[in-house]
Structure prediction request, 488 residues.
Amino acid sequence: MTDQNRQTAALSAIEASLGPAAVDRSPQTLARYATVGASPAGIVLPADEAQLAKALELAKGAGAVLQPVCNGAHGLEKAGLDKVIVLDLQRLNRILEVNGELAYCLVEPGVTFRQLDAHIREKGIKLWVDHSGNPDASVAASFVGRHPGYTPYSDHYLMQCGLEVMLADGKLVRTGMGAMPKSTCWQLFKFGYGPWVDGLFTQSDFAVPTKVGMWMMPQPPAHQTFMVSVPNEDGLAALFDVLGPLKLNMVVANGVAVSNALHDAALLGKKRSDFKGQGPMSASAIKAAGEALGLGYWNLYGALYGLSGNVPILWDMVKGAFSSIPGARVITDGNGIDPGLWAWRMGTMTGAVAAPPANIASWNGDQALAANPVSPVDGDEAMRLYELSRDICAKSDFDLVSETVAIWRSANHRQVLPFTAAQGESGVRARGCAEALIAAQAEAGFGQILAEPGLRAAVDKTFDSGGLSALHSRVKMALDPTALFASA
Prediction:
């Protein structure tokens, strides 16, 4: 039996057992999950854990391959391999608990940030939701994929506490304190007893998440949001040199975003064609584009939090530090900046869950791939990575549309390559550019922290030393010996 026949047999068996609502093979739906060079054979949508276990059993019996996603309803989670069956958990979307006193939630994988925010507002719970930029993304997926947000709780991997997964054989496993039947601290103490295994189920193909606990940020008594813009390309170094000590000493505690003018122009729905010239934009053109929007070449978004008497003291110090950068503007009122962009940027740092004015891919297409390297929060290193990446993008006729989120001691970069899905050459070129970025960045010492499904093989090659790949393979063989879950 061919692979395609196995997938077809599995879809038919699941539909016969779970009903027509559990399987979707419509072209419109498949297109939503497709990415460059990969389109799924069908979508399986279990409604609860019993249906999930049955779907795994039937798929395994047919020899099919599943790619789990937490919530693909809005096209945010893509197929990594061609003709796999996407196992979409969007119907497992119950908010199981939000504890306002102890500041945590327990959710199923289909729950989105928008849904969680609406629940909190309805109940009048004074907690902030930290989201990674898109309100329709899955809360669980932000942990599984290790996507950062913008408040002091921006490290979603660190803020996760308590996990339940379903293994390939249908067995449910609770981690941490949840492994003890009468535990009162499943969402309070991350590590439980014995080896801590939660990380095995992030960026992996070992199991399917069914419940995820997350710590949430209580509303602080006071806060001060701000923006710092610098006018020139080389101003990135100064921004990071000032920011580094402030992050290291936890003065500026949020996930600090640093974006170039093209990134924020795209968030406003501006397009490459709105600006003069052909080919990748020059530094002077990018500077002019930023000035037309009230932005700098580079724009930093940060916030301070604490007691009402303490925040002004910290602000005087932080304002003075950034004001020392030649040409820098330190802004707190948003004057001269698009109100929609300002409101969204400030909202991401203060628990407001909303979509940006436009999709970043609108800069030059309708979809995007991205490289996601990490660097120190250091000016020289940030510039070295930026210049390397800028030049590689230019060779493939791409602008470098870039945002960085500084968390703790690292700067997590997202370098977006927009393309038009209907133009096959555009997507192939974007993938080639992304793979070139990944290889060159690794050679320069900058590793990827996450990857689009279709780029994971390229990233795996850069980490294939020191026995890590062998260890991953041994864990995979132990937990999923028949490779039911796709290795993207």
Observations:
- The mean pLDDT is 95.
- The two ends are 22 Å apart (CA to CA).
- DSSP finds 15 helices and 19 strands in the chain.
- The first strand starts at residue 23 and ends at 24.
